[in-house]
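Blinded run. Sample ID left blank on purpose so nobody reads anything into the name before looking at the predicted structure. Input follows.
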Amino acid sequence: MVLLLAAIVIIAVAWYKSREWRPDESLWPDQGALIGASDGTVDFETLKGLGASFVYLQASAGAGQKDANFGRNLDAARAAGLQVGAVHEFDPCLRADEQSANFLTMVPREAELLPPAIRMARDTASCPNSIRDAAVQSELITLVNQIEMHTGSPVVLAPSRTFEQRFGIGSRIERALWLERDYLEPEYGARPWRMWTANSTYDTAAADKPLRWLVVRP
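Blinded prediction complete.
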């Protein structure tokens, strides 16, 4: 029983410490956070004080979902001296035209913004109709082109591990990759990552909820 309790305490302490972990700033000086509607209110001044130099804000998802806080967060992050990028959540069930229109209504065409990002996590299993993998790849390429025409910057592709394993986007579209894996560098991309979600539950004083902490390869 004593050994069991000791093991439980060790696991609990390790879990608590993991929520405060982030990569060494001496090795990874360019760090930031991904902010979305589920994160609630974020104090960007505090985030800046913690060492963040940038944030990515979730702007849109699919054809009709929008983050109502995007505009306010954009202004607040800029006022705090942070660089800002916008994110669209790709829906493989929908046409690219619908999704790009949703993104374009939310994100201004400004050179000061960081390159836009497209996150890909949803699978076609939830789609109401059967969709071929080739069709998903084609629509994603179209979406990439449409967003790049609007922003004037090449997109950053952020596939989840399962999405990349199924669709092989990293080897089909030559763009910077944003990969995710807590505490250890991700290795599932077709080539080295440019941005890494290093801790998906980073506990900070900047928000009531844990944030997704990011680093950029030097």
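Unblinding after everyone has recorded impressions. The chain has seven helices and nine strands.
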